[in-house]
Amino acid sequence: MRVAFLGTPEAAVPSLEALVRAGHNVALVISQPDRRRGRGTDVSPSPVKVAALRLGLVVADDMSALETLDVDYAIVVAYGALIPGRLLERTPMLNVHFSLLPRWRGAAPVERAILAGDQDTGVGIISLEVTLDTGPLHGERRTDVGEKTSSELIHELARLGAELLIEVLGDADALAHPHPQVGESTYAAKVTPETFHLTPDMSLVQAQRVIRLERAFVRVRERRLRVLGATPTNLAVALGSLRSADGVVALGLADGSLDVVLVQPEGSRAMSGVAWWAGARLDDGVTWD
Which of 4, 146, 170, 286 is 20 to 30 A (C-alpha) from 59? Predict the structure, then answer.
């Protein structure tokens, strides 16, 4: 089958690689333009662009390249921008979406599933429509959320999505007869820096979910401290305070305390909570927010 591929982050690479392995003719890959991806002024290509060039594929950074391209389908995986209606009318498009639609339509379905405490999630192949993630389903797979981090879950869903995409493309009946989404829809709003901010009014469960997003932080004396790993502890700590005792450094939360076993201070490497406390020279009862 002759296809185009639109994708940008690492999570989209397995689907692109699967298309090539399965023998599909990937006529064009479209990814977001090169940009700064860290400190400094140098720009770098997206993971999808890097993979496409490695595979010897033609790459563009503007969707207008589809306007004159004849393909059977365009495959969209985490491209990072809405597809204009004129292109949807011209080219049939399939989207690999990382949720159990209609739950978590939108930009951050994996993060929202973790924050909401969903027991399971999954990946679906839908026909793209002008409205956001509303298209009918050609196939779906499920997996447990468990205690997985966001990167672990995204990695798993990327693999499942790539496998499912190849199955759907090889199944004429699945392509021709998708079924409508059924159930209550929810919106997966884009995450912001504040999404990852741990606050004293959170419950232990809420805080641990935020930490599983792998960008959690607190502020101690107006300096940001990333919390990379934590576990509940019986050490008594006042709400909004920090305390160190018996090899534990704990945050006081709304319904208990959380031992911050792995942290990363601003401008420094990751270290144990105990090592950070010793270097910071703080007193018990110092507040955090």
Answer: 170
The angle subtended at Cα 149 by Cα 142 and Cα 101, nearest 5°, is 30
Across the range 147-151, mean pLDDT stands at 98
- Name the one residue in this structure whose structure tokens are 């507040």: 287
Per-residue tokens: 68: 């004159």
Query: How many Å apart are CA 101 and CA 109, to the nearest integer?
Result: 10
End position of a domain, from candidates 173, 188, 203: 188
- In total, the chain counts a number of residues equal to 289
Residue 243 has a pLDDT of 95
Check whether residue 36 and residue 117 sit in a common domain: yes
CA angle 30, 4, 138 (to 5 degrees): 120
With a cut of 80, say whether residue 1 has pLDDT above it: yes
- Does 38 have pLDDT greater than 80? no
The answer to whether residue 289 sits within a structural domain is no
Residues 176 and 247 in one domain: no
Tell me, what CATH number does 253's domain have?
3.10.25.10
Residue partners of 32: CB distance under 8 A and separation at least 6:
8, 46, 61, 79, 80, 81
3-state secondary structure 84-99: CHHHHHHCCEEEEECC
